[in-house]
Design brief:
The protein has about 425 residues and is an alpha/beta fold. It folds into 2 domains: about 10-65 and about 375-420, Urease, subunit C, domain 1 (Roll); about 65-365, TIM Barrel (Alpha-Beta Barrel), CATH 3.20.20.140. The chain is about 30% helix and about 25% strand. Strands 1, 2, 3, 4, 5, 14, 15, 16 and 17 form a 9-stranded mixed β-sheet that branches. It has a 4-stranded parallel β-sheet with strand order 6-7-8-9. Strand 11 (about 265-270), helix 8 and strand 12 form a beta-alpha-beta unit. Helix 12 packs across helix 14.
Length: about 425
């Protein structure tokens, strides 16, 4: 049991919820270094002599939340872009806004987003890096662990896909490894040429990296690929994008032709799918990251979560960025807020299921199943404490309904306070 070394911390709580297993009254967690070595009821798991013992009191001690999709560097864009008449208009707005920001502004925005995530219980994140020059500096400014997905686009620049990818890989390969690792994010089918999609898939798989891509986000993207028309098609054609890859099926089928789909891929949004798209994603083992508040901001049609799950797709949650949260909403990157929004439009989903979307399922999507998103022997010692004063059968409902910051955060066996490891 103690292969991780001698025990260093013993945490006791009124409720301990591993998420992958039922809640335990009067629970205890035994940690050795950065690894969990035992989980159980306090009466069955006494504190070893000489080990740091902390009684967390009336809380639910549970795994740190896992945010499967985020844009940390857009955090300070909260409230700066009102919902637009079309998705294409929104792309124009955010592109123009990004063009006015300095590197220092993006850095401050990234770090503010990371701090917001930690205060609200996220311990692992899959983040899209539009400015890789911020790395590894921003990594050192947060206790979070995660995957930095290097964003790739090739339409506007018209750069040679192999050269563009080569530069990105060289930058990523030079980064240190630790709590953070690298992945690739071809931005979207409409913004990434087919050759770059194909090469990105090959390169990521050769390195054992994960891939993530925005797909079927809007009705305009769907119309572009299926029918060769619509505002997005017209705008990109005017900007001299080669449109010969359109008119041959859905965006998901386009990715299949490019060889991108696989178990190492997270498709983000997937708002406009047909049944055959869902079945194809399931067949290839692709995960789907849904961002409920972003979905509400754009006013998309109801998200087909039940169809995706019936097909066998691993569904998880992400926050997206604060650029796509309405002004009236909580201006924080907050996965609890995403769970509440999911529960609002899908009241038939059990609270336990909603929490799994932000823990177990998201960990699987990021390739970290069994390491994060659960409290179990061998997992990393990432845990949060959520205040709780209800009955034992109300644990999941209370977690989904939680508002505000969490009571305590543990990442890699270290307590986090004011955004820093103690």
């Amino acid at each position: 049991m103690l292969s991780a070394g001698p025990p260093t911390r013993y945490l006791r709580s009124r409720i301990l919820w591993p998420v992958a297993a039922p809640p335990l009254d009067n629970g205890a967690l035994l940690v050795a270094g950065d690894t969990i070595v035992a989980v159980g009821r306090a009466r069955d798991l006494p504190c070893p002599a000489g080990v740091d013992r902390v009684d967390l009191g009336d809380v639910v001690l549970m795994p740190g939340l896992v945010n499967a999709h985020c844009h940390l560097d857009y955090t300070h864009m909260a409230g700066q872009i009102a919902p637009q008449a079309s998705f294409t208009d929104w792309i124009k707005c955010i592109t123009a806004l990004k063009g006015t920001w300095t590197e220092a502004e993006f850095r401050a925005s990234w770090l503010a987003g990371a701090d917001s995530l930690v205060r609200h219980g996220v311990t692992t994140v899959g983040d899209i890096e539009a400015l890789p020059e911020l790395l590894p500096g921003v990594w050192e400014g947060t206790p979070l662990r995660g995957i930095s997905f290097f964003e790739l686009t090739g339409v506007k620049s018209r750069r040679n896909p192999a050269h563009l990818l080569g530069e990105t890989l060289a930058r990523a390969d030079a980064l240190p490894r630790g709590r953070w690792s690298a992945g690739l994010s071809p931005h979207a089918p409409y913004s990434t040429v087919p050759e770059l999609l194909r090469l990105s898939g090959e390169a990521a798989r050769a390195r054992g990296w994960r891939l993530t891509i925005h797909v079927a986000e809007s009705a305009e993207e769907d119309a572009m690929f299926r029918y060769r028309h619509g505002p997005l098609y017209d705008w990109l054609e005017r900007n001299e994008r080669d449109m010969s890859d359109c008119g041959e099926g859905s965006p998901v089928e386009h990715l299949e032709r490019c060889g991108l789909l696989g178990e190492d891929v997270i498709v983000v949004h997937a708002n406009y799918l047909q049944t055959e798209d869902m079945e194809l994603l399931a067949c290839r083992g692709v995960s789907v990251a849904h961002c409920p508040r972003s979905h509400e901001y754009f006013g998309h049609r109801p998200f087909a979560w039940r169809g995706l799950e019936r097909a066998g797709v691993n569904l998880c949650l992400g926050t997206d960025s604060l650029a796509t949260v309405r002004r009236r909403a909580e201006p924080e990157l907050n996965l609890f807020a995403e769970m509440r929004e999911f529960a609002r439009f899908a009241p038939e989903a059990a609270p336990e299921h909603v929490v799994r979307l932000a823990t177990v399922n998201a960990a699987r999507a990021l390739g970290l199943a069994g390491r994060v998103g659960v409290l179990a022997p061998g997992a990393w010692a990432d845990a949060i404490a959520v205040p709780f004063a209800g009955r034992g059968d109300e644990v999941a409902s209370a977690v989904v309904a939680h508002r505000g910051e969490v009571a305590a955060v543990l990442i890699g066996g270290a307590w986090i306070k004011d955004g820093r490891r103690l």
